[in-house]
Amino acid sequence: MSATNLWETVIGLEIHVELNTKSKLFSSAPNRFGDEPNTNITAVCTGQPGALPVLNREAVRKAVQFGCAVNAHIAPFSKFDRKSYFYPDSPRNFQITQFEEPIVIGGQVIAEVDGKEHTFAINRVHLEDDSGMLKHFSTFAGVDYNRAGVPLIEIVSEPCIHSPKEAVAYCMAVKAILQYIDASDCNMEEGSLRVDANVSVRLKGEQGLRNKIEIKNMNSFSNMEMALLAEIKRQISEYTHKPHLAHHEVIQQATFRWDPEKKMTVLMRSKEDAEDYRYFPEPDLLPIVLAESYIEAIRNSLPELPLQRERRYVHELGLSQHASFVITSDKRLADYFEEVLKECPNARMVCNWIIIEFAGRLKEFGKNVAEYGISAKHLGQLVSMIDKGVITGRIAKDVADQMVLHPDKEPSKIVAENPDFNPLHDTAEIEILVDKVIAEHPQSISDFLQGKEKAFAFLVGQVMKLSRGAAAPAVVNELLRKKISNLQKDDS
Amino acid sequence: MHTLSAIEIRDRFLRGEVSAVAIVRHFLDRIEKYDEEVGAFLSVYADSSLQHAAQLDAKRKAGMPLGKLAGIPIALKDNIHLKGQISTCGSKFLTNYVAPFNSTVTDLILKEDGIIIGKTNMDEFAMGSSTENSALKKTCNPWNLKCSPGGSSGGSASAVAARMVPLALGSDTGGSIRQPASFCGITGFKPTYGRVSRYGLVAFGSSLDQIGPFAANVSDAALLMEVIGNHCDKDSTSLNMPAEDYLKGFDGSIKGMKIGVPWQFLEELEAEQRTLFETALGHFKELGAEIVSVDLSILKSSIAVYYILATAEASTNLARFDGVRYGVRSAKAQTLNEVYDMSREDGFGKEVKRRILLGTFVLSSGYQDAYYRKAQKVRSLIIQRYKEVFSQCDLIVMPVTPTAAFERGAIKDPVQMYFADIYTIGVNLAGLPAVSIPSGLTGDGKPFGLQIIGGQKSDVAVLHAANAFEKITQYHLAMPDLIQ
Description:
The complex is a heterodimer of chains A (492) and B (484).
Chain A: E1 7-18, H1 57-69, E2 73-74, E3 77-78, E4 81-84, E5 94-97, E6 104-105, E7 108-113, E8 116-129, E9 133-136, E10 141-144, E11 151-157, H2 164-180, E12 193-203, E13 213-218, H3 221-241, H4 247-250, E14 254-259, E15 264-270, E16 280-281, E17 288-289, H5 292-300, H6 306-317, H7 321-328, H8 331-343, H9 347-362, H10 369-372, H11 376-387, H12 393-405, H13 411-417, H14 427-440, H15 442-449, H16 453-466, H17 473-491
Parallel strand pairs in A: 13-14
Antiparallel strand pairs in A: 1-11, 1-12, 2-6, 3-17, 4-5, 4-16, 6-8, 7-8, 8-11, 9-10, 12-13, 14-15
Chain B: H1 6-14, H2 20-38, E1 41-44, H3 46-61, E2 73-77, H4 104-111, E3 115-120, H5 154-161, E4 167-171, H6 178-184, E5 187-190, E6 211-215, H7 218-228, E7 258-261, H8 271-286, E8 290-293, H9 302-317, H10 336-347, H11 350-363, H12 369-389, E9 395-399, H13 414-418, H14 425-430, E10 434-441, E11 447-454, H15 459-473
Parallel strand pairs in B: 2-3, 2-4, 7-8, 7-9
Antiparallel strand pairs in B: 1-3, 4-6, 5-6, 5-10, 9-11, 10-11
């Protein structure tokens, strides 16, 4: 693998996002996923002759919102172009997109990669309409135009991404922003967020970019990571095995798709087959002209964004930066977190239970605790019981297991119903253990008496150990303090 | 009745002197009598128009309010949608295409109680200047059946010229209303771009297309403009201004008006046509207008610019005709690419294919700068030049065409045919309003038209001047022998 370290990866991403507007980009047809085929259509969606596009203002507003959220320049003047290609899912055989003058220019996205903040640059964001969907049957194919005309923004990054991990972090940060401003559902399975990647490699320190490969059909972040890893490996291997050929002969510009079964990228079309899209200004639409006041009003009414929330959690709640990034990268999860805090204000402990304990338990379901359906109230109750010393951390883990099995069940009930989960509250029994620990650790006691709080925690730990985790921490605490202060009195 | 104006027909109906059913019957009879020879109509809605007329009669009898077009039969060019009826656009490809919605102009006409009596022949997808490019029918000029009625709205023009219908709509992308109006000796008006909604008009060159009226006199054309010239939310390029009154101000006075003539641009006009044109200028002087010379020699580039921009837009507008969703799919096609190739091969005529190829070429990478972009720049210069000229004069006049109607089949070279539009195309490139009105007959008895052009949004002024000219000349009263 040492040869790999000589190489540098360059990735640029194109993220296509379906905006969650009520109607489509150029028609009044509903923008809704999952309905019967060809029910959400008007004459515009099927490209009827004589039908004309009329721009949806809500889509423009959402595109501008995103632009403001990533600190981009919002173009006061932008326009649409026709992009020509023949395919049955394209009802007019041209797509209406923004080629020359996009609505959003530049911008940055900050994401966390390996515990460090990383700033990614956006090149442009443009509005365009989605295509329909081809459905293949045994002897024929059909087209569903429900998706045709759904508003998309295409977010084009600079080629500033240098690893698959960075690519995932960038995508997640973009997705979080879109969710926070309520611009999209960002559901990759339903196709409301789709990513194409442009990948090339070069030797470290090399100037200029080598030919890039475009990868399509990566319908999850984990697929994307695998596809990028596979493609990078393939390119490095090609260059390594053909050292005498010119770079542009080794890798020729082409489009590949990710095959999740074979776990490899597969050639779709080479550059020679690339289409000439013959872009030119769309004569049926006027340019989008935005007043400065309109842009400012949107900028000023942006909701709290993921990064702002991340900063707030670090500063106000004392979360670590990493934990804060993880929990704020999903708006629903962060909202859930705040719900739990109403029940149990110990933010660090609550955060820990959400992003570590339950995340681990629910990994196999592919869901986080909010999505899984454990209520914020129940999670709050669980953490509260630990916080107040009603149950031990060890017992809490077992209770959590039960909560995964019975997501509707109150944790206090789970504890009440299972004698094993009932911590030892019998003072007499615990007292014996406390006495034993005090007798065995005179040094710790004198440390504690000299003001070392850590020594006290050690003593508590020793008692818990003797009780095999069953002693109620609150009782142990109380008894220990009482006994030690008695010792002091005895001394004096 | 057919010698009456549309306005008179309506007024007689409103006064109860004639029923709407009788009006429609009369014109259906005329279609029956003359259209076999003229070939103006692709479809005639005898039953539905009589039904509609009967409803209007009932409405009148019940004393209910009636609209501006009450009882007037109107024909639509076959690229304008009437819901539930076939819109062929003169193409084999769309012979099975039933319009799924009304065009805005159709809705506006129906709202004002006009009666849609049928749809008229045209050059395929409005591409042509003689209606010879129709894949479906041969249309003749009522003045001389050997001659072309002009095009592309030749069906609508010949229908009105033969008084088979008092009013008709056409569309004008490079002269397709004005040139056939000139050839057929009637009034044809191309409004300011955006004045009339294009919603429901099958697009040819979207930035140039405009629907407009044909009539036997200027007032009738103005009446129809009062109805169709309105803002429409479904067309993003529709002007955001309310409908205007045209007829109220028609007092025949254009005294003191400055009328520009681009003499340099008209150098090649032949003697007979020049004489007719100069006679027309004399009438304007009689009316007290001042004739000034203006420079529009830049329009010599207009044909080249137009055939780049219009075909570029058309190549994409016509891409939707692929046999996948509607239209005639080739029965031989087995694969997707065959559906595309064979349906378009079979469905489109030669001129349409020529223009799609041309439009595709001028947009291709490597050629776009030399053709499409350069043409856009020249278009901007033409717009600029017109603006300057309109600071020197109120209106521009020039002939509509270099010649009167030519014989069908006489022009074989497509580029020569393109030059039939040399005087009309500039108006479309600049989005201006312009009218074609009769200005006398040539020696061999063919109508020759005069074009009056105004600045943007001066539609009312253009028709006002045309009305004044018509009042003192009465050229519009001449009718073809065929129907006398």
